[in-house]
C-alpha cells in the first residue's frame, strides 16, 4: 500500500473490530477460522481479525477517510481449515534473508486504478504478490507441474525455467513435472521431469519446451490425473482461454477438497488480457514487427509508387499493430480490429493511399490480422470456421487488402504501383524474449511460486500499475483487452500517421467527393458501422 496512506482500524458499533476493507471472494466468506494481522502502524490496532469480518477505513495523508475494496483470491484453508502451515523456506535462503522486507504483509495491496479523483472512490485493490512468512507446503511434499496452452509467445520458456529455478532454489522443491502438449497432455501424454539442469538454457529459445495445443480441456480428466499423479501445485501458462480452463480446474480441485494450488500465468501475444499492465513477450513482438515494417519501408522507398503492406498478429486486439506503428514512424496507416475501415469514397482507404502516393511517392500500411474481417467475409462470401478451442479462424485480410488496393489503383485509377506484401505474423511470436521481457517473465514465475507455496489458489499473477499482484482469475477473463478508440494512445497514433479515422460522420455523406471531384456512391453509414 502507498506509504502516504495509513490504515486505520475502526470499530463500527454493530460490527466489532471491523476495518473498512471489503473482501470480494465468496470462498473467503466461508473461511471463518483464518486470521490475519492488520494495522502495524499502531500496536493498539494490531488485531487478529477474522478475514470474514474485516472492514478497515483508509485515511489519506490529507486526513480524509475513504473506502477501498480488496478483491481477494482463494486460499487452500478456505476449504481445508486445518491445513498446517510452516515458516517459509525463504528464511534460510541467504539472498532473501538479508532483505529489508523479506515477506509481503497480509495487508499489502495493489491498487487497480492509479489515477484517482479526489472525490472519487479509492477503487479496487488486489493482494500484492510475493513471498509470505508462512507456507502451506513442506519442500519434500511438493509435486509441482507446469503446462503451456494456446498460441506461442516470446518468453514462455523463460517462465518455465524460472518456475523450476524458483521452486528449487528458493523453496527446495525438486519434484517438478512438465505436462506435454497443453491441457490434453494431462491425460494423453507422459510427463517429463523438470530440473534446473534440464531447463537451464531454454530461455534462449523461442516456443515452449513443453509444447502446446488448442482444445482438449476436459476438467474431470485433468483433475483425475492431477489426483492420480499426486500433483499438489499446478502452474498454468496461457491466454484467456487457458485461464478460463485454470479457473475450472481450481473449482473442481476445491470441490474434491484437494490440497492443490492452481496458479495461472497470463500469456498472450495479442496483449488482450485485462487488468495486467502488459503481457510478457509483447515488447519482444513489437520489436520484431519493427523489422518487418522497416523492410517494407526500405522496399517501397526504392520504387515508384511503392505500397508496403505488413500484416501483424492481433485477433481482436490491435495492440501489436498500434505499438509497432507508433514506435516505427514509417507507417502511414494502421488498421486494427477495433476500428472498422472502409475502402471506397471520401475518407476511405483508397483515397488516402492515392493521396499519400502523390505526396510521398510511397506508403506503408500495417494491418492487424483481425481488422476488417466482416468486410473480407462479405467480399469472399466465406463461412465462419473455428479452431479446436472454439476461436474463430480469421480470413486472411493481408492478401485481400493488397489485391483490393492494387486493383483499384491500376484498374480504376490507371496508376502504376509496386505492391510489396510482408507477412511476418508467426515470426513475431516464435522468437526468444528480449532482455526486459526476460526479467518480466522471471517476476511472473516467482510471484506464481510464492503464491502457490503460500497456499493461494485459483489466481492469476501479473503487474498492475507496475506492482505484481494476485488477481482472481474471473477478473482477467470477464472481458478482452482491446485498443480503445476513445483513449489517448489511439489519438496519438492518428496524430502520428495522420491517417483517416474512418469514424462515420454524417457530414461526409453530403460531401461525397473523391480526390478529383468525382462522386463515389458509397453507403458510409453501412460501412462505417461494420464491426469486426
Ligand atoms: N472456456 C473455456 N473453458 C475451459 N477451457 C478452455 C476454455 N477456453 C479455452 N480453453 C482451453 O484453453 C486452452 C487454450 O485456449 P485457446 O486456444 O483459446 O488459447 P488461449 O489460452 O486463449 O491463448 P491465445 O489465445 O493467446 O493463443 C485450450 O486447451 C482450450 O481447450
Ligand atoms: O495459428 P495459431 O497457432 O492457432 O495462432 C494464431 C492466433 O494466435 C494468436 O497469436 C494469439 O491468440 C493470435 O494473434 C492468432 O490469431
Ligand atoms: Mg485467447
From TrEMBL:
| Key words of the record | Allosteric enzyme, ATP-binding, Cytoplasm, Glycolysis, Kinase, Magnesium, Metal-binding, Nucleotide-binding, Transferase
Into which EC class is this enzyme placed? transferase
Fetch the InterPro entries from UniProt.
ATP_PFK, PFKA, Phosphofructokinase_dom, PKF_sf, PyroP-dep_PFK_TP0108
- Record Gene3D superfamilies: 3.40.50.450
The EC number of this protein is 2.7.1.11
Name its cellular compartments: Cytoplasm
Binding of Mg(2+), residues = 240
Q: Name one GO biological process term.
A: fructose 6-phosphate metabolic process
Quote the SUPFAM superfamilies the UniProt record gives. Answer: Phosphofructokinase
Activity regulation summary: Allosterically activated by AMP.
Indicate which residues the UniProt annotation says bind ATP. Answer: 151, 214-215, 239-242
**Which residues are in the Phosphofructokinase domain?**
144-450
Chain residues that bind substrate: 268-270, 313-315, 369, 426-429
Q: Which reaction does it catalyse?
A: beta-D-fructose 6-phosphate + ATP = beta-D-fructose 1,6-bisphosphate + ADP + H(+)
Q: In which pathway does it act?
A: Carbohydrate degradation; glycolysis; D-glyceraldehyde 3-phosphate and glycerone phosphate from D-glucose: step 3/4
GO cellular component term of the entry, any:
chloroplast
- The primary site where this protein sits is cytoplasm
Subunit info here reads: Homotetramer.
* Function, in words: Catalyzes the phosphorylation of D-fructose 6-phosphate to fructose 1,6-bisphosphate by ATP, the first committing step of glycolysis.
Q: Which family does it belong to?
A: Belongs to the phosphofructokinase type A (PFKA) family. PPi-dependent PFK group II subfamily. Atypical ATP-dependent clade 'X' sub-subfamily.
Q: What is this protein called?
A: ATP-dependent 6-phosphofructokinase
Amino acid at each position: 500500500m502507498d506509504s502516504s496512506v495509513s490504515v486505520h482500524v475502526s470499530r463500527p458499533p454493530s460490527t466489532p473490530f471491523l476495518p473498512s476493507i471489503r473482501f470480494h471472494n465468496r470462498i473467503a466468506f466461508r473461511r471463518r477460522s483464518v486470521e490475519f494481522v492488520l494495522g502495524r502502524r499502531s500496536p493498539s490496532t494490531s488485531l487478529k481479525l477474522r478475514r470474514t469480518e474485516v472492514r478497515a477505513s483508509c485515511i489519506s495523508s490529507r486526513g480524509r477517510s475513504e473506502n477501498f475494496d480488496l478483491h481477494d483470491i482463494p486460499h487452500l484453508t478456505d476449504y481445508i481449515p486445518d491445513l498446517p502451515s510452516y515458516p517459509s523456506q525463504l528464511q534460510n535462503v541467504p539472498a532473501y534473508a538479508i532483505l529489508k522486507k523479506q515477506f509481503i504483509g497480509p495487508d499489502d495491496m495493489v491498487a487497480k486504478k492509479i489515477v484517482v479523483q479526489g472525490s472519487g472512490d479509492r477503487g479496487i485493490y488486489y493482494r500484492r504478490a510475493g513471498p509470505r512468512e508462512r507456507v502451506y507446503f513442506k519442500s519434500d511434499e511438493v509435486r509441482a507441474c507446469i503446462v503451456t496452452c494456446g498460441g506461442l509467445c516470446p518468453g514462455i520458456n523463460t517462465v518455465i525455467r524460472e518456475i523450476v529455478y524458483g521452486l528449487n532454489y528458493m523453496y527446495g522443491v525438486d519434484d517438478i513435472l512438465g505436462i506435454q502438449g497443453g491441457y490434453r497432455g494431462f491425460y494423453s501424454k507422459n510427463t517429463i521431469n523438470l530440473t534446473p539442469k534440464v531447463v537451464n538454457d531454454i530461455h534462449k529459445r523461442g516456443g515452449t519446451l513443453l509444447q502446446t495445443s488448442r482444445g482438449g480441456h476436459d476438467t474431470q480428466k485433468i483433475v483425475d490425473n492431477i489426483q492420480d499423479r499426486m500433483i499438489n501445485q499446478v502452474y498454468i501458462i496461457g491466454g484467456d482461454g487457458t485461464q478460463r480452463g485454470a479457473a475450472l480446474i481450481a473449482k473442481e480441485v476445491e470441490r474434491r477438497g484437494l490440497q492443490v494450488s492452481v496458479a495461472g500465468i497470463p500469456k498472450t501475444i495479442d496483449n488482450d488480457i485485462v487488468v495486467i499492465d502488459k503481457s510478457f513477450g509483447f515488447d519482444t513482438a513489437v520489436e520484431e514487427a519493427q523489422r518487418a515494417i522497416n523492410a517494407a519501408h526500405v522496399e517501397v522507398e526504392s520504387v515508384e509508387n511503392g505500397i508496403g503492406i505488413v500484416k501483424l498478429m492481433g485477433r481482436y486486439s490491435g495492440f501489436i499493430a498500434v505499438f509497432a506503428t507508433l514506435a516505427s514512424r514509417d507507417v502511414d496507416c494502421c488498421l486494427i480490429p477495433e476500428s472498422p475501415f472502409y475502402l471506397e469514397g471520401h475518407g476511405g482507404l483508397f483515397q488516402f493511399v492515392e493521396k499519400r502516393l502523390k505526396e510521398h511517392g510511397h506508403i506503408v500500411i500495417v494491418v492487424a490480422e483481425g481488422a476488417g474481417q466482416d468486410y473480407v467475409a462479405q467480399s469472399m462470401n466465406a463461412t465462419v470456421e473455428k479452431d479446436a478451442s472454439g476461436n474463430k479462424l480469421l480470413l486472411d485480410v493481408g492478401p485481400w487488402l493488397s489485391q483490393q488496393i492494387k486493383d483499384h489503383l491500376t484498374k480504376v485509377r490507371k496508376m502504376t504501383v509496386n505492391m510489396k506484401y510482408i507477412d511476418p505474423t508467426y515470426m513475431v511470436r516464435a522468437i526468444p524474449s528480449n532482455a526486459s521481457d526476460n526479467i518480466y517473465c522471471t517476476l511472473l514465475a516467482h510471484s506464481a511460486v510464492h503464491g502457490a507455496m503460500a497456499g493461494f489458489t485459483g489466481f492469476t499473477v501479473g503487474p498492475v500499475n507496475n506492482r505484481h499482484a494476485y488477481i482472481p482469475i474471473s477478473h482477467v477473463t470477464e472481458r478482452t483487452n482491446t485498443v480503445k478508440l476513445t483513449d489517448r494512445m489511439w489519438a496519438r497514433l492518428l496524430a502520428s500517421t495522420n491517417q483517416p479515422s474512418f469514424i462515420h460522420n454524417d457530414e461526409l455523406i453530403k460531401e461525397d467527393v473523391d480526390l478529383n471531384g468525382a462522386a463515389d456512391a458509397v453507403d458510409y453509414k453501412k460501412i462505417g458501422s461494420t464491426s469486426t
